[in-house]
Amino acid sequence: MSAPSVIEVERLSITYGAFAAVRDLSFQVRRGELYALLGTNGAGKTSTLEVVEGHRRATSGTVRIFGESPQDRRAVAPRMGVMLQESGFSPDLTVQESVGLVGALSGRQDDVDRVLGVSGLTRKASTRVSQLSGGEKRRLDFATAVYGGPELVILDEPTTGLDIQSRDALWAAVDRLRDEGSTIVLTTHYLEEAQQRADRIGLMHEGTLRQEGTVAELTQTLPSVISFALPPGAPEPPIVGALNGAFHIETFSLQHDLYRLLGWAHDTGVELLDLTAGPTRLDDVFRALDAG
pTM to 2 decimals? Predict the structure, then answer.
């Protein structure tokens, strides 16, 4: 039996004058999963999330958060934390004051020092927001979003501007939230993050949901790839497709074709140079959206 839905979007449309930013969009996010909503620039992700967050009204269709309208702030806001791309904190407040203020407004209970520790900002507690680096401001955005351990956390480009160590620390904190039962919605341009962490992915393009599924389900829509080169004088391999001496084979039967190639190389004593083989990556599926 599948988990109940935290977010239900049904036939959502959002228009700005004559422009349709989102058209007849439907998807669900189940309790406890990490759902990545990805798309090309202008796909309608931001407009969709603004409706989910209660910051914008839908032109048509319905959106439910925990079974309630996102416009019902009293019912929804205390259960949902949002990390916007830019939150616009007061530059004169300290980090500790900013977290405490936003935390109090959220209606959730927490310890400010604990949240600063989770977000890696303990040493910056007394620093004014105006003196923070770009990456530190992103950590402050994260701190206010996860204050009180909300049931639903929306992360909009959470790792932009973060160095590798800060990214790792942020994802470790997200993992702890998930262990505690939080549901995560992610948008990111770092597709490897979605590929590594998302339970399911929705791919938007030009205002519609073009594909949805697990990483395995999405990547199976395109062929796997085998690449290699041959030393000079090597015989012709059983799989053709050489370009400038290098082979780049697309196949929907990766295991069969790779077994056949390796058997040929063993039997003929040929070394396969720079051999790589693997399924299509998420970024290839992403590029196919714009080409389709």
Answer: 0.84
Which pLDDT band holds residue 243 (cuts at 50, 70, 90)? low
Pull the structure tokens for residue 287. 């590029």
- Cα(258)–Cα(190) distance, integer angstroms: 30
159 by Cβ neighbours in 10 Å (0-12 / 13-18 / 19+) ranks as buried
Q: Which of these, 208, 177, 189, 145, lies nearest to 34 by C-alpha position?
A: 177
Cβ atoms of residues 28 and 212 within 8 Å = no
Q: Are 103 and 148 in contact (CB under 8 A)?
A: yes
Shortest CA distance to 24 belongs to which of 48, 49, 2, 53? Answer: 48
- Residue 269 DSSP class: T
Radius of gyration of the CA atoms of the chain, in A: 23
From the number of C-beta atoms within 10 Å of its C-beta (0-12, 13-18, 19+), residue 45 rates as: buried
